[in-house]
Amino acid sequence: MNVFLYARKSTDEDDRQMLSIEAQLTELREFAKKEALSIAREFVEAMTAKKPGRPIFNEMMADVERGKVDGILSWHPDRLARNSVDGGRIIYAVDTGKLKALKFPTFWFENTPQGKFMLNIAFGQSKYYVDNLTENIQRGIRQKLRRGEYPDKAPVGYLNEPKLRTIIIDEATAPIVRRMFEAYATGKYTVCQLQELVTGWGLQTCFGNPIALSWFPKLLANPFYIGQFRFKGELYDGSHPPLISRDLFDRVQDVLARRSRGPYRKKQKPAFPLRGYFVCGQCGASITAELQKGHNYYRCTKRKGSCSLKYTREEILIGQLSTETGKAGLGDWLDKWQGRVAELKQGEAQNADAILAGQKVKLVETQTRLDRLLDVFLDGHVSRDEYTARKEKMLLDKNRLAEKVAKLEQRKGSRFELLERFISQAKRAEDAAFSGDVADMLDFHRLIGSNLKLFNATEEDERQ
User: Fold this and answer.
1) Which of 15, 236, 379, 460 is the most buried (most CB within 10 A)?
2) Element (H, E) at 461
3) Is 210 helix (H, G, I), strand (E, B) or coil?
4) According to the model, what pLDDT value does residue 463 have?
5) What is the per-residue pLDDT for 164?
6) Can you tell me the distance from the alpha carbon of 299 to that of 49, in angstroms, rounded to the nearest whole number?
């Protein structure tokens, strides 16, 4: 009897289950000799049989349906099919006489109604095994999500700990990842420039390759670094330690939002230091620059339609920027403000405990709202999309509150920290305006969230 030999393993990775294929081939060849079977061709496939569409299996079945052989030799029916489509195809080939025999060392089959019934059961058991295995895996993943464990490979900066199956901070790459976030939060770098920067610092993938440019926006927007993670579009609280603060992460997201052109934005030429920081004051389009007669001129790109904004020379624009930046300085009031803050800080300790208690109450309330939302979803009163959207917002609020509580507990809170930072930045703005340092002035306006708009220069400006 002429037969096709079919051997299959469930993965196409060379270093996994290779012995399974070797063992199948050896056993099947010995079985063929014992049963006086003539092997017309051997088909070996490394692919799961959970779904139909295996190319080598389909090729073999096409030859079977053309009547090239009498039967198929395989280790067990589950090697041939674990889905109802392929299983039904084999049984139909037996019914129509295309297959006269199926030979298995581990399974009995005869071309009789009873034999086909048992074969159908074997295929059904194979499908049940796959379905049950899938359900067990999904149940394990759901349990991991409940515990806040990320059920996938950790991003750069973290490691998957194999013994305890947890995620820990990678002491080798974590400092570089922090520097990456801090550098991008300044707004001085495009994504292309950031890639060059961190590659120079030695940041690599787990395979030792530089991180691809297209991955940087995903890394910078990944909530995994603040102790949360997304899985199938839903946000979860993670049990892994955060790598950066929520404040730093939010500042990075602001920079990403402002650079709306995304990861493929071309690097700006340093010859135009103000380009990319202003928008048109008339139509809101972006501003471009060009060199004319030895001077840099800035104008509207007119990408939002017609606009009457004229060219503005760089020297005029820098002068106006210096004037506006200098207005943020405190002048003679600087020493008075610093003295007053010192007095206020003396009484801060008395109120620190009350503030901390208030934040903890809000944190408990947020968790209660999350629990109620889950109950409402499980009762079927809200859709999954609505539940996911509400849950993500609440988790972000909970994350911010938890970070505030942690900071207050660590240093008992400094309610005047923002005021001190304001005074410091006001002095920085005054110094930048006095020195005329364009980069420092732009950094200051970026830090305070200024919306820099370009209008037509006045006649007096043009004469200067």
Assistant:
1) 236
2) helix 459-463
3) strand
4) 42
5) 80
6) 62
